[in-house]
Amino acid sequence: MKVGKALLVLLFAAITSYAQNKSLGVGTPTPNANAALHVESPTNNQGFIMPRLTTAQRTGMSTLLTSTDNGLMLYDTDLKTIYIWDGTAWKSTAEVAGGAKLSYPYKDSVTTTLTGNDVFALKYNNAANKRVLRVESLSATNGSSAVSVQQNGTGIGIFSRVDNPAAGTSAVFGTTNSNLGGAVAPVGVYGESTGTGSLGAAFRVNNAANNFPAVYAETNGIGSAARLVSLNAASTAPALVVVNAGTGSAIQTTGKIQAGEFIGNGSGLTNITATNPRLTLPYQDSVLTAPANSNLFRLYYGGTAPGNVGLAYFENLNPTNAFSPLFSRTLGTGSASIFMIDNSANTGAAVGATTNGTGPAVRGFNTGTGNGFAGLFQNNNATNAFPAIQSSTVGTGPGLRVLQNTTSAGSGIDVILQNTTGTALGLSVNQQGTSNAGSFAINNATNTSAALFSQTTGTGAAFQAQTSSGFTAVYGRREGATNGNAGLFDITDSANTFPSLQANTVGTGAAGNFKITNTASTVSAVFGETNGALLSAGVYGLNTGNGFGVVGRSTGSAIGSAAVYGEQLGTGDAAGAFRINNAANVSNAVYGETNGTASAINAAQFGTGTGLLAQIVNVANTSNALRVLTNGTGNGILVNHTGASGNLAVFQSSGANAARIDKTGKGFFNGGTQTGGADLAEMFDVEGSRQNYEPGDVLVISERTDRTVEKSSAANSSKVVGVYATKPGVTLTEKGMDENLDELIPMGVIGVIPTKVCLENGPIKRGDLLVTSSKQGHAMKAMPVNVGGVLIYPAGAILGKALENFDRQENGLIKVLVNVK
């Protein structure tokens, strides 16, 4: 309530003040006459809140505003700033205040300034990286300066100063990316004097403690770091004048005089030419003393001038001179010579030797009586993966050859790896051509040793061959007319239980493949022999997985060229035994396969025993003793009895006959028979095409052809004989068992048969007698005739009795107990 009263009082005061002087005052009884609205805070702790809109609301007002609303103000609550309508669009206060300060082109002349002030000053005091002044001339054809400063007074034209001792920047920095070049190429900084008593450029270090040069020139190009040119032909002044008021050198280089090039013959330099050498040749000297740890002769070159410069060059131009151009000898304990490259980026050789003669480019001798190397190459960097010595050739000879003198007993090549924990190879050969990676040959006919001998005291293989692209990892070949093995594996320790030869593979091929390609050979491709004790095998195949323990394959065409042949000449066990001892193995102990016309497995008994015995001795085994599968069109089982007597098959239960098929094909079953079908059918020919008939059709005797049936088409026909059977349990026929029955249909004559029916005589109920209808191939309910209270049905026309109700308007199938009467 108090707030409402205060508001009424304030509003009344404002209206009163407006009425007095045409100005609206808020918080003041005497508003400023020059202000349309004058707001004061009576308590001096209040502000002014103008209308507040969101950005969407503000932009939505734009369609309502015109130029007459110029100056309209509001506060944008999203952007947190004040906006003013300029007659056509909203402008922030910053945009309104950011109009141009100068009109261009701008030129001014100032004659007076305030005392102590600069005519023009820009000061920036903020840690952000911003330029205080930036001037750009963006036209590529503008030939004027971007900035021009003219000084007609006695002061400096431009004064640039870095006043921060920690700054690492230049007081003046000039750069250019010009590619023009020329006699006076464009420069980053250019100084020129057009007077007669001024310098083109002056650089001075004015701090006695500063040990840096007043001028420093550096280049990363191929030109000189500095060039001094005197262009006045009449000038007698030197192009370079060096004055040193101290005690140091006037000029100092990082090398000898050769580190620079001086054209001319001034008195301060000696002109060294081919006719004015420093040494007189032949030159020979003997030195008895020298400063400690110093060199008697040293050539040092530290120049950075472009081009290749050699420190020393020795040539022997006399083809009959047998002396070496350079001879180095020492009687001390150090090397006769050392060649070192101390630049990690250098890819050249520390020593390069070339010859176009027939001798070696490099040759090393050791003529001492003690042990020593004729040549030693070492890599002393543990991370260096390159070989200590590398030899290459583009000729037809080998890249490396080792000749062993005939009087020496040493090895041709001796490789010793002294790192007992290392995994590096003793010898690695990488052949990228089409020949062998290595060749070992013995050319002495009396030599009984191996061409390649490999021995190990470790647990690994003495010899390992591996290939990732070729077919054969190890290949053994025996040539010559005498007998000998292409490969021999021997174990000489009688306590060794390991195999003499073991082959493993994780691929899809065989672990071992033995082949004889001589068509005249009569021996086995694999011959296993043992004189061991009981159960030892000449050949033993074991598969602990799901595959085969032994696979035999033969491509011969003669009788007896079996893939696997087992022969037992004694009175012991079977000629062949196949056993799986892994309970998880789901494969067969014996598997026979053929692509020919003969049997995959043929069991022939020439004695008095059984031809083939399939036996399960595990009483808990629920699998079949004999299982026959076929994906072809032939028989699953064929029994051909060619003997004089006997049965085709006998089936026993616990030793007693349960079923038998005699030699004539007659079957005998002690327990009766049971089939999967529900009716008895007989095969009949049909009128027309068999494709026009389908199971469930009601059939009648054809009057046109003997022993032929057709679909019924008349009501109460006495020629009805049966129904096209869906799944007969027993099928009868007069034809032989091997005759073609494809054009016949099975007609059910008794039993439960799905039959086509219709409602011609009304709905059918279970137990109703059925007869043929006028609808082709369909039956209907039989309608009897009442004679003296007795229902008389048509004689010989009853098809059977309905086993299901039927009252659907469309035709359908129901089960019918067919029994034609």
Distance between the termini: 115 Å
Strand content: 5-15%
Q: Give me the side-by-side strand order of the main sheet.
A: 10-12-11-13-15
SSE string, helices as H and strands as E = HEEEHEEEHEEEEEEEEEEEEEEE
The radius of gyration is 60 Å
Estimated helix fraction: under 10%
Estimate the mean pLDDT confidence.
79
Structural class by sheet pairing and helices: little secondary structure
Model regions low in confidence, pLDDT < 50 over at least 5 residues: 255-276
Describe the structure.
The protein is mostly loops and 821 residues long. The protein contains 3 helices and 21 strands. It has helices at 2-21, 55-61, 93-97; strands at residues 24-26, 37-39, 52-53, 73-76, 81-85, 90-92, 647-653, 656-662, 667-669, 679-686, 698-701, 708-711, 720-724, 730-732, 745-757, 769-772, 779-781, 785-787, 790-792, 800-802, 812-819. A 5-stranded mixed beta barrel has the order 10-12-11-13-15. Strands 3-4-5-6 form a 4-stranded mixed β-sheet. A 3-stranded antiparallel β-sheet has the order 7-8-9, with no helix packed on it. The chain starts with a helix and ends with a strand.
